[in-house]
Amino acid sequence: MSTPRIGVIGLGNMGGRITRRIVDSGQPVIGYDPVPGRADAAGATAASSIAEVTNAADHLLLSLPDSTVIEKVVLGDDGVLANSRDGQIVVDLSTAAPSSTVRLHAEFAERGVEYVDAGISGGAAAAEKGTLTLMVGGSTEALAQLAETLKPFSAKVIAMGASGAGHTTKVLNNFLNAVSLAATAEVMVAGRKAGLDMHRLLEVLNSSSGVNFATLNRFPHIVDGDYLEGGLTSTLMMKDVVLYVNRLRELGVPALNSPGPMASFGLANALGYADQISNRVVDAIGDAAGGIRLHDEEAR
């Protein structure tokens, strides 16, 4: 069986890193991004249009900001759907609205195309190392065919169920990420204002019931002034929280814990941190608390 040709649409923060991993594994990639130079930077052959990369690929990966953009890319004139063909597999690595994903899946199915939603977790660092976790919705047959395509950038691939299950899982996971980051930021600012030593406070939290991903992996760096730049922005984090609230509304589940992260990242966006890494939410809360910073800037 011949090796499938791989295409990628969206070569930004995550898509570019994923493409580089695939290329470095020895598999050529044709890529499209509206920003000039991104395909070259990722090691891909640059396509001039969505149609060109769709026509060239057997496995087409999408890495796009949200469902609004995904739908334009897929459903637009001369977009992915119009140029797709029987037997092709389209993999959506974006964080998207599951209801939109299910609709697109049905559209592609009419053309004999498998549309797989594969939410990713691990951030830019895991993408560079090839250790992303993928949570996948779609047929088991399509997932089996994708094994070698996904291998260069993922360490764990978990089949979650039918179309939309991958993106639903991703939205649920990202909400917990938002909660832990926002809540820990608030606690750390309070600890700093109370005069506590930041490293000792983290030592206690990480040995106690308050431990979470943010206390283990984010704040040990942040308290020394390293915000781990290059990851999810506050704007995108807010988008994920909204996706969570909308999904719970569709499911008939009350989103009782959403006001906290909604307020925290809303504050960050309002205070000028919208396009910076979401870890900067701690500075937004610090601003509201009177200009508090966890680290001593003069000592750095």
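Next protein, fold it too.
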Amino acid sequence: MWVSLALLLLGLVTALVAPRLLARADWVEREPVVALWVWQCVVAAVLMSFALSMTISAAAAWQAVRGQVFAGAPRAVVEAYELSTHGPWSAVLAVVLAAGGLWTGAMLGREIGTARARRRRRRCELLERAPLLPGEEPGGERLVVLEGERAHAWWLPGTTPRLVITTAALQRLKGRQLDAVLAHEQGHARARHDWLLHCSGALAGGFPGIPVFAAFRAEMHRLVELAADDVASRRFGRLTIALALVGLNEDRGVFGPGPAPDAHLPQRVHRLLTAAPRLTAGHRLRLTATAALVPVFPVLVAFVPGLAALG
């Protein structure tokens, strides 16, 4: 009885405490790749806690589920979970958590479907604005240049990611600054940041009342940009990518007074120009390993009674 409740409580505590600890951490902006990993582990721990709580509650409520979950387990292990003492709330909890799991899957499917439709539409628009030359194969081009008065560069995810840049950006950025912008977009494509954005968007859209998922989406959008900035800065220098970001966005009101379309851009430029010392390799390794252990805690809690019975 206590196991399913403990798992549910563990998921809630993780969802409440972990985002606050990460918001106070001073290393997040210095190590965005590590922060991305930590956030993924936190969300995985929350989802795993709820999934295990649902499983044990369902095993207590229905004999058929119990037979599947504890198939082949010694009788002492089954008795250690005290499934027969669970009240009628077990079925309610299992149904609620199962509905949440199905809803999460549906939201992720919708997010992926919407993203694919958006990509197809944008690829068709690119083909209209930049038609293939004789002899070119569809989907083979990696860099697409568009005629446009607005300086802009972005990446279009997919099986064959494409880097798109406008002629205005080519005129405004020269030499290493242009190379740095392209390296930034390549950093997104190589790390497949689109999947992080899809998953975080699905959770935040499906559960708008849960702060941890809203924070997860906001941080994913911010941290993937910081990580891509670091990819470009390692090749071309922090000053180069900072000047390139300013050059691309100075005519959009991003750096002036009033609300900006990209509120994180000034902070990104400031971070590049006033870089704090990076963490040591040992510190990064410890953070990564500690984060990897976070999803293990729900598993340990779920298996404690069984392990104690076998011992």
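About the second fold: The radius of gyration is 24 Å.
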